[in-house]
């Protein structure tokens, strides 16, 4: 009896640690629970296990057992995209039975210990490329693109320094947004550049926008994970509020004026025109395609993707931009965002199923910067425009509905081995045996 109890306890710890690893990859609690249920069915077919998932904690319990619930708390640090890919391969091996559950701790330890070359320098360069590429993608004037690139580098360095101190990390969104706006506003005033485009202000701090966090929160709320969804949503909104306060404070001190005619969405950027020349001119529309590639490279450097995953990111983001640029004029920005979210989610699941080494979180989340749910929220808060706030809310809902529809389509097409699908096929297979 003692050996059995010890074995069950060790198994529960392994399952909890696996769940925490997936949370650190940025996986929603709904997907983490589904994955753990699949793994436990494979490893423990005759021993039912139940899971309770919180944003940084996994609880494992056995119905009817006298033993206490096993609780595993997260390490706190988010994993790189490369580590997330290795975690995805581990999960697939456990689900298929190619690897026993007892071997998982060694692989989990190896995943967390995966080295990354010059992480500070990569993140710094990635922030600069991301800022400049976003300003180009949303067709800011050339002066704003160059300014966003340099401010992005400075803000990236400041953010890296602040994140090393727990107390400073809490106010990093406000400080980064404030410093970025001060720099942009001062440069615009000194050089007499006139009204500043929205993404000249938002692009340098876009890497801090919690777009994926807020979208995951909405997905969890629609999946009845109320506690985790509400807590993530509240944290994301607080971060957005801090960033909006920093933008507002910086704009007030510098007297900066936002150009109301500048683009806030991909569909708007495609239709922009102006008659200016030189540094005031807008980049040609074809340059946006190059900007998407540079944006993907910047994300790869900032989040530690590695060469192969960066190529995947380039393909996914190029496809996402193509869908948005094509559908936005036909359907409107709100509907196009939902459709793009659904198509992207299905494509991410297909890629995950085919390669086993590209988790959906890695291929899906970078495109949030193009679907820009978080950036739209920041823009609407910073501009204090009621219409912009309403648009942001509709974009959030559209993206969430589109993603849920994409998840349903992926399940019905048997692209993913969902929990529901397993419940359908398991009795049939048992009958065949």
Output the keywords.
20 helices
Task: Summarize this structure briefly.
Helices cover 70% and strands 3% of the residues. The protein has helices at residues 2-24, 29-43, 81-96, 104-112, 119-137, 142-162, 166-170, 172-190, 198-202, 211-222, 226-254, 266-270, 287-302, 307-331, 333-355, 360-364, 368-371, 373-383, 386-412, 419-432, and strands at 50-54, 57-61, 70-73.
Question: Mean pLDDT, rounded to whole units?
Answer: 77
Task: Evaluate the radius of gyration.
Answer: 23 Å
Strand order of the largest sheet: 1-2-3
| Helix and strand element order | HHEEEHHHHHHHHHHHHHHHHHH
- How many DSSP helices? 20
Helix content: 55-70%
- For the record, give the distance between the C-alpha atoms at the N and C termini, rounded to a whole number: 31 Å
- Taken from the alpha-carbon principal axes, the silhouette is globular
Low-confidence stretches: 1-6, 417-433
Question: β content, as a range?
Answer: under 5%
Largest sheet: 3 strands, antiparallel
Question: Could you tell me the number of beta strands?
Answer: 3
Structural class: mainly alpha
Plain-language structure description:
With 433 residues, this protein is mainly alpha-helical. Residues 1-6 and 417-433 have low confidence and may be disordered. A three-stranded antiparallel beta sheet has the order 1-2-3. Helix 5 runs antiparallel to helix 13, helix 6 packs antiparallel against helix 8 and helix 11 (226-254) packs across helix 18 (373-383). A hairpin with a 2-residue loop joins strand 1 and strand 2. The chain has helices at 2-24, 29-43, 81-96, 104-112, 119-137, 142-162, 166-170, 172-190, 198-202, 211-222, 226-254, 266-270, 287-302, 307-331, 333-355, 360-364, 368-371, 373-383, 386-412, 419-432, and strands at 50-54, 57-61, 70-73. The radius of gyration is 23 Å and the shape is globular. It has 20 helices and three strands.
